[in-house]
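Homework-ish question, so no full write-ups if that breaks the rules, but can someone show me the predicted structure for this set?
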Amino acid sequence: MLKFILRRILLEALPTLLILVTVTFFLIRLAPGGPFSAEIDVPPEVKAAIEAKYRLDQSLPAQYFGYLADLTRGDFGPSFKYKDFTVNDLVNKAMPVSFRLGVTAFIIAVILGVGAGVTAALRQNTWIDYSVMGVAMIGVVLPNFVLAPVLALIFAIWLKLLPAGGWDGGRAIYMVLPVAVLCQHYISVIARITRGSMIEVLGSPFIRTARAKGLPMRYIVRRHALKPAMLPVISYLGPAFVGIITGSVVVETFFGIPGIGQLFVNGALNRDYPMVLGLTILIGTLMIVFNAIVDIVYGLIDPRIRIK
Amino acid sequence: MSQAQDQALLVVDDLHVHFNVGRESLLPWSPPRLLKAVSGVSFTLRAGETLGIVGESGCGKSSLARALIGLNPVTAGSVKLAGRELAGLPASQWRPLRSEMQMIFQDPLSSLNPRMTIGEIIAEPLRTLQPSLSRVDVKHELDRVMARVGLLPNVINRYPHEFSGGQCQRVGIARALIVRPKLIICDEPVSALDVSIQAQVINLLVDLQKDEGLALIFIAHDLAVVRHISDRVMVMYLGKVMESAPADELFSRPQHPYTQALLSAVPIPDPQRQRSRVIQILEGDLPSPISPPSGCVFRTRCPQAFADCATDVPELREAECGGAHRLACRRH
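A: Not a homework solution, just the prediction itself:
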């Protein structure tokens, strides 16, 4: 196990991250404009001073290796946009917000998605199955930038039950709408994957054996069918978890939530190089970590693919 | 009540298993199509007896077996286990009866949950069917059946994929045995195994039957195996019983044209006799069980069919040679 984790970090995670940093570093500098091109006509001395402060006066390779050197110390550099803050400060502040929003949405998505999928699978080709899958299909195709204003209109403006935006330290009432919009897509996808793989598993010979043993259906689903049916869902959940935490750009922007998504949008628009790079590394790392977790969970569920 | 019925363990009377296979056309009011997998099978199984069921693929052997144990719903007819009616019983009332009737399947490896250890698989029926048993008792029973089927105690924590097909089938048998059933239904239990392993598993089943007084329903298409293990053999064709007789009687003096054709296809392990034997080859394919032929279902391929065969459905009745030999044919 330890050997597996070490091999994962040394041979897979670090090279992947290095490539990711390199590509992002040069790509973002290819984009026209610079972090300070918006500022109106500063005297050349001032501009030079600013560029010197942020190491922009050096050659590109020098900037690159300077950045890498900072990275090894865990320093993601200063933000170009929020001048008194470092990237570390901003991410540290935004991360818990996105994390809280994302984890809540994720848990709800898994519970409702798996529940709906299993229900539909057990009642395959009945009206229950068709309606669950119909709703899930709408959930898959409905974009969140449509659902968000509709829900805000209904629950905030007409019914006046919930706030239309804001965060307020993550009070429950402020979380309802963003979480609902965020998990909508994931519930639907999880429900559809679960249904499909559950139907397949229920048709397999060892489930027939379990039925012939005389086990009750509910027990068979729980003890025999759920684990193998979860394999495709779990491989989806790894990347989905990262996506739900970091990718809630629309939701965070619409509801004015100070999370990672907002940082990313602002960073990209303002050519805030260290911010974009920092977030890219963060998301890349999360992606690698959660995919590794998925692999480990796989082994726990299926002894045949246990890591040797 | 006669003596025979007193001893009867399983009485099947006019059993029908039909499957709905969609409609004749896309129109919702067009008549539904029924696949008659089993139509009107009756037999009686005494305690400790082995009944072999043979027939070509698609003749309804497996559907019959699955209906007996409740994996397929029974469309009509009656299945009585030790006097209790099983057909149409809700799942909850089935459960206590499971201890009396178990089933072994064809593909041993895929019939076992790959995520459970051998010990968990074998003990599971006991844990759910007799939850009052203590952990120690379950372990004791587990050791008993594992020893009985020839599995070493140290394999208890291994997984099915670490075993050969023969060993997996032993696990399947142990799993069926642990609840001390009176009847085990074996649906082609050895057809996925190598010949040498087949012999081991069959001998194990024969031993078990003798020692524990088990009744077996043994489904196979290997006639030699069926002859070896069965007391009585039932020949099925297109969901109906064609002939039924004590094993030796059936194999030495087959009466029904279908049985004769089946037996003539068995190779003889003697080159000279093999060369000189007459093989009766049946013409054509098995007719569709969705629209079976009128009259005798075998008439479309029967070398001895005559006009009446198309109109009269032959009843399964005692053959002229008497005894327990029964057949369904107008010719006899």
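Now go work out the reasoning yourself. Hint: The domain at 3-23+31-100+217-327 of chain B is CATH 3.40.50.300 (Rossmann fold).
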